[in-house]
Amino acid sequence: MAAGSPPAASPARMECVLRGACAAMAAAGALLLGLSAQTKTVLFIQRKAVPKDVQALWVLIVAASAASGYHVVQLARCLYMSRLAVAGDGAGGCRRLSRGITCVTFLLDKGCAYMVFATTVAALQACFVGLVGVEALQWSKLCNIYTRFCEQAAAGMICSMLAAGGMAVVSAFSDRELFRRRRPCSSPAAAAGARQCARL
């Protein structure tokens, strides 16, 4: 049993690392976008560019912040469960994490990845208009005026896209855990308990 412990612990450790990276990247994206602001004088009038001027950027800040908080909570749960698995025996692991919690985690991981990816793509599309302009609608380019704001927003969206990719990988761990929980516990202790119940 001791020889089989490292392979079982390795996916849990990798999941913890990935969740920490996703939380850090999503938080970095939200901070870069939230703190991006630049003031310029345009036609003798001072104008300040802030993320709220582009609604898609503001939605991305909220989505990335929520995703970061969610993955911090999941990271704490993952560390707690791995500590319980190390402290306790292997048979108790199936009882500690119910199938319902596993299903909820699976759905939340998928939804979180889709939410961050969708809001990032929407923000990219909205900012692309500011980058190249739309001559048919007489929308002029804005990134040649608010250069620092656009660069910081681009860095924030890159972090958010990397976070969305990491969340997609994390959801694969949720898939594995969900389908692993569908199989009944097959440890010797669980089998002995089932045989004892059958005698009664």
Automatic annotation (TrEMBL):
Subcellular location: Cell membrane
Keyword field contains Transmembrane helix: yes
Protein name (Swiss-Prot/TrEMBL): CASP-like protein
Main location group: membrane
GO cellular component: plasma membrane
Transmembrane stretches, start-end: 16-35, 55-73, 112-133, 153-173
Membrane topology field: Multi-pass membrane protein
Keyword Transmembrane: yes
Casparian strip membrane protein domain span: 12-164
Family: Belongs to the Casparian strip membrane proteins (CASP) family.
Superkingdom, natural source: Eukaryota
Keywords tagged on the record: Cell membrane, Membrane, Transmembrane, Transmembrane helix
One Pfam family linked to the record: CASP_dom
Quaternary data: Homodimer and heterodimers.
Taxonomic placement: Eukaryota, Viridiplantae, Streptophyta, Embryophyta, Tracheophyta
